[in-house]
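Run log // design_07
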């Protein structure tokens, strides 16, 4: 059994159960941002959600399962944006809009949670597997999108050049309560524009 399979949520939700799961995930996000993943207990999650610990365990059998639930929720939200990109005739414009919105609208709490989970991934194999999977999916999607927009560009090389900047925006958003991501996002989009215009070396 894979690490990710071992931390799947316990039940397949009905609409009422899905609403309760969403409530638990909201409570978990608040706890993780306030206390950090490592210090947060399932009892803390239960108090934040105003539910009994036993009820929490009906939906998620561990903190790792809760984090997986948060990741899946983010993935579902991202899928809506991807669908818009695939329907649009202006793939470049929609891609730029998605990236600009993602980085400029990310809350400081969301950035803090991401940073905390990156740190936890260095010592928790289950979280590490989840982070690696999410990173791989994002990398594949961006490389494929770059290639579709500009066939012949060095899509993989472009992603490799951009990845540190994208992570840096998240780190700065987490560490600096007054951080303004606009200049970095504009630079990111300019680098993408330039990279899409270049042909890969023969």
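design_07 sequence
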């Amino acid at each position: 059994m894979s690490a990710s399979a071992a931390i799947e949520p316990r039940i397949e939700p009905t609409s009422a159960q899905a609403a309760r799961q969403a409530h638990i995930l909201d409570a978990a996000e608040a706890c993780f941002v306030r206390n950090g993943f490592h210090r947060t207990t399932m009892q803390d999650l239960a108090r934040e959600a105003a539910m009994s610990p036993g009820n929490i365990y009906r939906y998620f059998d561990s903190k790792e399962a809760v984090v997986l639930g948060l990741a899946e929720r983010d993935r579902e939200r991202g899928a809506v944006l991807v669908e818009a990109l695939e329907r649009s005739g202006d793939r470049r414009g929609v891609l730029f809009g998605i990236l600009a919105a993602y980085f400029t609208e990310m809350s400081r709490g969301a950035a803090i949670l991401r940073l905390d989970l990156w740190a936890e991934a260095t010592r928790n194999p289950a979280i590490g597997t989840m982070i690696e999977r999410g990173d791989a999916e994002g990398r594949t999607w961006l490389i494929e999108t770059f290639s579709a927009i500009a066939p012949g560009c060095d899509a993989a090389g472009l992603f490799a050049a951009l990845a540190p900047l994208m992570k840096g925006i998240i780190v700065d958003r987490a560490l600096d309560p007054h951080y303004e991501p606009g200049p970095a996002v504009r630079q990111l989009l300019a680098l993408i524009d330039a990279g899409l215009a270049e042909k890969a070396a023969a």
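The chain has two domains: 1-70, 88-202.
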